[in-house]
Structures are given as C-alpha cells and as structure tokens.
C-alpha cells in the first residue's frame, strides 16, 4: 500500500505544485529516488514520512495534503480511469457508498498483489453512513475522505464527510440532487 500511496503522492505534488517542489520534498526526505513504482515494495510507513516532509515544504497540514490527493485521484484528467471505476458503483451517491465494500476485491481481480484496506459501511439512516477503513497508513482515511468528497461532487450530492475517529468516516447526505451530476456513460468515450 505504501508504494501506491507514494506514487499517487508523487503525481499529486508534481501535477499541482510542479516537479521542482517534488524534488525539494525528496531532498528533504533524503530519498534515494524521486519516482516510485506502484508494484514495488517500500519500507512500511515511508508514505506517511514523505507526506510529513511535503507538509513542511508546502506549509500545509498532512491531513490536508492527503485529502487533496484523494480529490486529485478522482478529478484529475489523468486519472479518468479511477473516476470511471468508482462510478460503476451506482447511479447515485448512496448506491456508490454501498458498493465501496466490493472495491478492494474488484481491484485485486485486476492487480492480485494490491493490498487495499478493507472497508465496511454501516447505514445509520437513509442519509447517514459510517464508513470504517482500517489501514496501517495514517493517511489512508484522509485520502478516502478526499475521494468521497470528489465523488459526492461527481454525483451532484451535497454531503458532510468528516473523519469520526482513527479508522472511521462519518457521511451525511444533505441533498442527493444538489447540483447536476457530471455526465457518465458505461461505454468509454471514443477518441
């Protein structure tokens, strides 16, 4: 999981702040490489450590960096595949939330060595959910919060999404049709 988080962090920083900022973070973290490969293994906790250095360089909190990275994974034109994979989860944001428990298994079908955290959704009421996401990486919960926020926007839903403990996210759908959803078709666009 560290490898995937490092690769996504690398992409987010380079896309948003530029390659020079990423190089500065790598120097401050005393890394021997500036490019991370998602299928390689890296020291456990390295992603959290590098995110800490990014926070110092950028003058932002680690939590904000992880959340923004989660949003970037869904909204960046270079990650349209991630958005499409997530949108297969349902026709509205509520359906999407119910599909989250299946995501780690689906991802392992494509990449058997991928070690995504298991998630468990509890529906407290028709518009209130509790999502449990246990991971040894501290940033995982915030990345998930960012992704959920971006997906709520994608579906046109107005939601309150916030961490509710070390491994839980509280989700409240305030208006499921707050704005127009981004267009989505099952068939991938040509061109």
**Unreliable runs, pLDDT <50, ≥5 residues?**
none
Cα-atom Rg, whole angstroms? Answer: 17 Å
| Separate helix tally | 8
Helical content band? 40-55%
Give the spatial strand order of the biggest sheet.
Answer: 1-2-4-3
Tally the beta strands: 4
Mean pLDDT: 88
> SSE string, helix = H, strand = E?
HHHHHHHEEHEE
Portion in strands: 5-15%
Global outline: globular
**CA-to-CA gap between the ends?**
33 Å
Q: Classify the secondary structure makeup into a structural class.
A: alpha+beta
Largest sheet at a glance? Answer: 4 strands, antiparallel
Quick summary:
With 191 residues, the chain is α+β, with helices and mostly antiparallel strands. Helix content is 48%, strand content 14%.
Plain-language structure description:
The protein is 48% helix and 14% strand. It is an alpha+beta fold and 191 residues long. Strands 1-2-4-3 form a four-stranded antiparallel beta sheet, with helices on one face. α1 (2-17) crosses α4. It is globular. The relative contact order is 0.14.
List keywords for this structure.
4-stranded antiparallel beta sheet, single chain, alpha+beta, 8 helices, about 190 residues, about 15% strand
